[in-house]
Amino acid sequence: MSLVAPVTLRERGVRLEPLALAHEAGLRAAAADGELWKLRITSVPEPEATRAYIESALAMREQGHRFAFAVVNDATGQVLGSTSYHDIVPAVKRVEIGYTWYAKSVQRTHVNTTCKLLMMGHAFDTLGCHVVGWRTDNFNFASQRAIERLGARKDGVLRGHALRRDGTIRDTVMYSMRSGEWPEAKAQLLYLLEQHAHNP
Question: pLDDT tens per residue, the chain (200 residues)?
């Protein structure tokens, strides 16, 4: 049985709901906002591969390895992107947060911070996780900065760890946060969201 059960999370106009085939058109439109699949350091699906992307995520959910969400504008229902719990290890109550991408028009807004608040809060406060982890491409400096802003600590670099979409081999930078570090990180995320609300 997976550590992560189906759940919908919402906060500040953002809704995370279990990714489904019904999200195909919305996900395709979100990826087209900025042609995100052309970035060599992300895993955003090409338009014609959107259905296969969702089917793969659903298969991984069945196996208990990954639980993917659609990121949705709670007011309009517009799909803004996707994010997942993955590398779920129930025995040690550990999850990682990844497979995260957003339409270009909502990047650098409150959406990512809100999603991380929801997912970290659910992992630590509801699922009782001891550790939440992240991993990113060694050349994805924006992602590394974003993870570090959450309060996560760098664990190290796995060299020659995974293939990129262009066939090159990447090094993977690993981060984590322990449950005892979550209260301070939560306070910081709430502070950042309040600052954004006053200075949008």
Answer: 578 999 999 999 999 999 999 999 999 999 887 666 655 556 778 888 899 999 999 999 999 999 999 999 999 999 999 999 999 999 999 999 999 989 989 888 899 999 999 999 999 999 999 999 999 999 989 889 989 989 999 999 999 998 887 889 999 999 999 999 999 999 999 998 888 776 65
Sign of CA dihedral 16, 20, 22, 25: positive
Structural contact between residues 81 and 167, judged by C-beta atoms closer than 8 angstroms:
no
Distance CA 43, CA 65 (A): 17
Q: Contact 93/131 with Cβ under 8 angstroms?
A: yes
* Residues ≥6 apart with Cβ < 8 Å to 178: 130, 131
Contacts of 38 (CB under 8 A, 6+ apart): none
Helix (H, G, I), strand (E, B) or coil at 30: helix
172: which residues sit within 8 A by CB, 6+ positions away? 135, 136, 137, 138, 157, 158, 161, 162
- Collapsing DSSP to helix, strand or coil, 145 comes out as helix
Token couple for 51: 């259905």
Burial class of residue 129 (count of CB atoms within 10 Å of its CB; 0-12, 13-18, 19+) = buried
Asked whether the CA dihedral 121, 123, 129, 135 is positive or negative, the reply is: negative
